[in-house]
Design brief:
The structure holds 2 protein chains of 2 kinds. Chain A is built from 12 helices and 6 strands. By secondary structure, chain A is α+β, with helices and mostly antiparallel strands. In chain A, the strands form 2 sheets. In chain A, strands 1-2-3 form a 3-stranded antiparallel beta sheet, with no helix packed on it. In chain A, strands 4-5-6 form a 3-stranded antiparallel beta sheet. The longest helix of chain A has about 45 residues. Chain A starts with a helix and ends with a helix. Chain B is α/β, with parallel strands linked by helices. In chain B, strands 1, 2, 3, 6, 7 and 8 form a 6-stranded mixed beta sheet that branches. In chain B, helix 6 crosses helix 7 and helix 11 crosses helix 13. The chains are: A alpha+beta, B alpha/beta. At the A-B interface, strand 1, strand 2, strand 6 and helix 10 of A face strand 3, helix 9, helix 10 and helix 12 of B. Strand 1 of chain A pairs antiparallel with strand 3 of chain B, so a sheet runs across the interface.
């Protein structure tokens, strides 16, 4: 359509330019007809879609058939050329539709995807379906790559979040400034997480950064003894900073038995809660993250890409199918 | 914004003459005049007008110690100083130090202290904070663990003189610095201690002269004693054998006593931390051992009581304090406490009115007992009971 409109507006100039670019002498429409009707003219061979769109596995046989036709009857040859022309012009051989000839010509000038040798229609259809599915697969693969990369980023973020915060859902956070004179840098900023009787202490600066630089050292296992645990983490980045982790600290007790029982109960509850947190973390977060944020953007793009490619493929395959049917009918007619 | 070095030096030189002429120890007359001028400004305290001898009751330290503190903080406080009285007269170094010390020692409000000194309350706040920073920067050496063997030995000997505990290097205790928080304060519940007060924990290790040798503060009052201990560097160093690792003394052929500190029942029994025997039906030797421990542990209670009595800002209920700044106020009060002791003020010899630094708080109970520490405690108990009967 675009070509026809443009041809209608600047017809002669455009044709002249096209002719000169193709090496043809500039002339009127009658010469064009001659060119089109002349089988030896390169102009006909150039826009002929059949050799391109129907790669023949046995070109020698076809050549022999043409030779026989030329030898036997020139009329048959004219029929064939007319049919070919009709194929090219969708059944209309008027000069006014020359622009329409050029349109499919230009679109099908680079038909590499049809190069694979397929003998019959079924194979072509299969190839097309394969191609279509391949294109779909390609798109899906691209989308998959996008998804996987996004998932990777998400998972990485999630892992970082997990390692930095250590599954602290449900904990209340308080920032505290602690002074400890036994250390050279006597002032620390700590993040204190608390859920009921469970306390976790993290270094404010080192919790999210330099995770890999931490050297964990367990100490005083005998002292901790299941009731209380402490991990002292030395950090070498930016001087010597420390991180304490009080995983479980029982609440103050005024009576020993009460305190002991409460500590045991606390330990049991903590274990259960940790398990529950782990389960919930494993089960829910990846799904939510994958479904929610990034794929939405990627999926829209992917749909658009797939839709446009499918339209193009359908258009090509429709034209191709029509051409193949006509070619077969023509060959049948010829050999009869 | 860090001040420029050059400006600091310039300012120091500019101020030097002024200070010497007014209040330094070299000018007795100037000092008297400065104090007279200042004491006249302190409203509502007519007793201060009587003379220099009332200086100590106002600032809880001798004039000599005051001058030493001025020399400590001079470089820091006199950089780009722009503070002035309400009448426009600039605040000298001594005015600023006096203002900050008054704020810390009286515990009065900013407005009250400001009115008594004739300055705006914002000036009281700014000068006090600058003083805090200056003491942190320049007074840290007054609060440290003894580094030489001579120091340690001296401490051990003094502790042994109290109730015969050999090789004891310190006493550990905690106290609560109470605050007034409202429900609108973020995380107020976190600071709620077992007595339903909002408070901040201060853990101290005290030597035989009531000097703080190690402090940990800033943790919320909800945490108990042993969890604060576990979070401390002191705990880590002791567990790793980097502290309290000095020479052992031989009590008998099979009994050696290493260095240790003592605590109350709220602390765990560890090889380097002795706590009293718990339970009702204790043997005579164990009861006697507990008495010795308790008497020695009184040192820490006295030190904390004196800290709170001398620096009332951390004694009373502070109204919604900045919980990131409060530990630094506490820290500086502890340093000032030590400075007064180090300067051998007569004020430091005054016995606090009470040993109850934490009224209403009963001792916590920690159940943990290290086996080797238990064995060590039994041997020490037997040794002390033997020496008791001998």
């Amino acid at each position: 359509m675009v070509c026809s409109v443009s041809a209608g507006k600047s017809g002669p100039n455009w044709l002249e330019r096209l002719r000169s670019s193709r090496g043809f002498p500039s002339g009127d429409a009658s010469n064009l007809e001659n060119f089109l009707n002349n089988p030896t003219s390169p102009d006909l061979k150039q826009p002929d879609p059949i050799p391109d769109h129907n790669p023949d596995p046995n070109p020698s046989q076809n050549d022999q058939g043409f030779d026989r036709i030329q030898k036997e009857d020139n009329q048959l040859f004219d029929v064939m050329t007319n049919v070919l022309f009709d194929l090219f012009n969708y059944g209309d051989s008027n000069n006014g539709n020359f622009a329409k000839i050029k349109k499919p010509c230009r679109k099908q000038s680079n038909p590499r995807i049809y190069i694979p040798s397929n003998n019959d229609i079924n194979e072509n259809i299969n190839v097309h379906s394969e191609k279509e599915s391949r294109s779909d697969n390609d798109n899906s693969q691209v989308a998959g790559v996008k998804e996987s990369s996004e998932n990777l980023v998400l998972r990485r973020n999630e892992e970082e979040g997990d390692t930095s915060k250590g599954n602290l859902s449900g904990f209340s956070l308080t920032e505290v400034t602690v002074i400890d004179t036994s250390y050279k840098s006597w002032k620390f900023e700590k993040l204190l997480y608390r859920k009921k009787n469970v306390w976790k202490v993290r270094d404010k600066k080192g919790s999210s950064v330099n995770v890999g630089n931490k050297k964990k050292r367990k100490q005083s296992a005998s002292f901790l003894d299941g009731e209380k645990k402490q991990k002292v983490v030395d950090k070498e980045a930016s001087g010597r900073e420390r991180e304490f982790e009080l995983n479980e600290v029982s609440y103050q007790t005024n009576k020993s038995v009460e305190g002991h029982e409460r500590a045991l109960d606390t330990a049991g509850k903590i274990l259960k809660k940790k398990e529950a947190n782990l389960k919930s973390a494993k089960g829910s977060t990846p799904v939510i993250l994958i479904k929610s944020i990034p794929p939405r953007v990627g999926s829209h793009l992917g749909c658009k890409l797939v839709a446009s490619e499918r339209l193009e493929n359908e258009h090509k395959s429709g034209a191709c199918k029509l051409l193949r049917e006509l070619r077969n009918s023509l060959l049948c007619l010829i050999f009869k | 914004m860090a001040p420029l070095r050059g400006n600091k030096k310039k300012r120091k030189v500019e101020k030097k003459d002024e200070e010497n002429s007014l209040v330094s120890g070299s000018s007795e007359e100037g000092s008297v005049n400065w104090w007279n001028d200042l004491s006249k400004k302190i409203a509502g305290e007519p007793s201060q007008l009587k003379g220099l001898d009332k200086f100590e009751s106002t600032f809880k330290m001798s004039r000599n110690t005051f001058d030493y503190i001025c020399s400590l903080v001079k470089d820091h406080m006199m950089v780009k100083t722009h503070f002035s009285f309400s009448n426009g007269k600039p605040l000298s170094l001594h005015d600023q130090v006096a203002l900050a010390l008054r704020r810390l020692s009286s515990g009065n409000s900013l407005i009250s202290v400001g009115e008594s000194f004739g300055v705006h309350h914002s000036t009281v706040s700014q000068v006090t904070w600058r003083f805090i920073e200056a003491i942190e920067e320049n007074g840290l050496h007054h609060l440290r663990w003894p580094s030489t063997e001579r120091e340690i030995t001296e401490i051990q000997n003094k502790f042994e003189k109290i109730r015969g505990l050999p090789n004891c290097c310190g006493v550990i205790d905690t106290t609560h610095i109470k605050m007034m928080l409202t429900s609108s304060d973020q995380g107020a519940e976190m600071w709620l201690d077992r007595k339903e007060n909002h408070s901040m924990i201060l853990q101290v290790i005290v030597d035989s002269d009531l000097r703080f040798r190690d402090i940990v503060t800033g943790w919320p009052g909800k945490m108990n004693e042993d969890s604060v201990l576990q979070s401390s560097s002191f705990f880590k160093l002791c567990q790793e054998g980097e502290r309290l690792n000095g020479k052992k003394i031989t009590l008998s052929e099979l009994t050696e006593v290493g260095e240790y500190i003592i605590g109350d029942t709220g602390f765990p029994l560890l090889p380097w931390l002795l706590t009293p025997y718990q339970g009702k039906e204790l043997s005579e030797s164990k009861v006697e051992f507990n008495k010795r421990l308790s008497a020695t542990h009184t040192v820490a209670k006295r030190a904390l009581a004196r800290l709170k009595e001398g620096w009332k800002m951390i004694q009373g209920d502070m109204w919604r304090p900045d919980k990131h700044k409060l530990p630094r106020f506490i820290f500086v009060c502890c340093i000032l406490h030590n400075i007064v002791i180090d300067m051998e003020d007569e004020v430091s010899d005054e016995v606090p009115s009470s040993h109850h630094h934490d009224p209403g708080y009963r001792n916590e109970v920690c159940e943990f007992v290290d086996e080797s520490a238990s064995s060590f405690r039994d041997k020490l108990c037997l040794h002390l009971s033997g020496s008791l009967h001998s």
